[in-house]
């Protein structure tokens, strides 16, 4: 069963690799997993030159949305989870229960309210209309709270406060280093979620220069039936769009595994 699951996950990537080497005519003359005459360099040149290099703009946008958004969002979630776990304030349990309720709400259900709010703030069709909603993640708060309870001893916090450390300094200098595996785990979850985010940019954006890769490649894919020359562009662009997620998993693998294990055991 593990072998079947691995094939189910890997075969689409193999298909992307083989298909990205084909020219437009070779899609109908070769099998799905057959390499062609190595047309990948020509496909890459066509991809980067299409529409004055709009693919590079989409890549830059995705890096900003996912990279900066993942780090800032993970920091906010970690701080919130730490506060709920280690600080005493009125309504703490109620606030956490409301936060957990947010995990049950699908993101697509929030798209219309977010659009109406962005419209009132005149943020529609701007970078901020997509970026700001990505900074919150109820599941990240839950994960940070679980990890803070397990990894941050109350004695260490009390020692820092006795030494005159304020709450912000205690969090950044004492608690956050102890929560580093959980923090990295949240970064990874945030990065993957934002990188694959599609519906929110679809609702918020109309300017193609602000699209992330997911929305831009979808826009090209809708033209394939009328303009077949977009087919190699979509496939090659999809292949390139996978690499940042693979790199993120490889770089953060050790911290991700340790953080996820601690949270699941707790």
Annotation keywords:
266 residues, mainly alpha, 13 helices, 73% helix, elongated
Q: In a nutshell, what does this entry contain?
A:
This protein is mainly α.
Report what the structure shows:
The protein is mostly helical. Helices cover about 75% and strands about 0% of the residues. The chain is built from 13 helices and no strands. The protein has helices spanning about 1-20, 40-50, 55-85, 90-105, 105-120, 125-130, 140-150, 155-160, 165-180, 180-195, 200-205, 215-220, 230-265. Helix 4 crosses helix 7 (about 140-150). The mean pLDDT is about 85.
Q: If helices are DSSP runs of H or I spanning 4 or more residues, what is the number of helices?
A: 13
Alpha carbon gap, first and last residue: 28 Å
- The geometry reads as elongated
- The radius of gyration computed from the alpha-carbon positions, rounded to a whole number of angstroms, is 22 Å
Q: Count the E strands.
A: 0
Rounded mean pLDDT is: 87
Based on secondary structure, the structural category is: mainly alpha
> H/E series, N to C?
HHHHHHHHHHHHH
Largest sheet, in brief, is: none
Instruction: Classify the beta-strand content into a percent band.
Output: under 5%
